[in-house]
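Reviewer 2 asked us to include a model.

Predict the structure of this chain.
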Amino acid sequence: MNNFRKITSLRKVILLLSITTFFSACQDYLVEKPAAQFTADFVYNTQAGLEAGVVSLYNLQRAFYEDVSGNNGSNCLILDAKDDLTIPRNAEIANIGRMFQGTTPDNSGVLGHYWNTYYKIIERSNALIRSA
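Predicted model (structure tokens):
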């Protein structure tokens, strides 16, 4: 019983020291400065910034097709279906294995991921066009 009290009091001391250290560790808040020269003024007001903005649109497009977690292997043209009429057996057989089992268009997220990505690209494209 005596050891239990020692352990309990030791835990309280460690907790108190941890809380004290956590709240007293920093005096100044972090002042964020951009590590690169890409700011909103740079992107929308200079020729090099507009070109960098266009390149970023291609990066968004590329990232969509490299992400295989939420968009069914980026096979946006292959429907979430498992029949011979939707996916022929001869050429697309490797892509069938990449499809999730038992999904429907309501719960697969493929179409939502597709629309979210391309609306983001359209929105940023319009911002670049307006600033050009």
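The two ends are 76 Å apart (CA to CA). Helices lie at 2-24, 40-45, 47-66, 93-96, 110-131. We have added this to the supplementary material.
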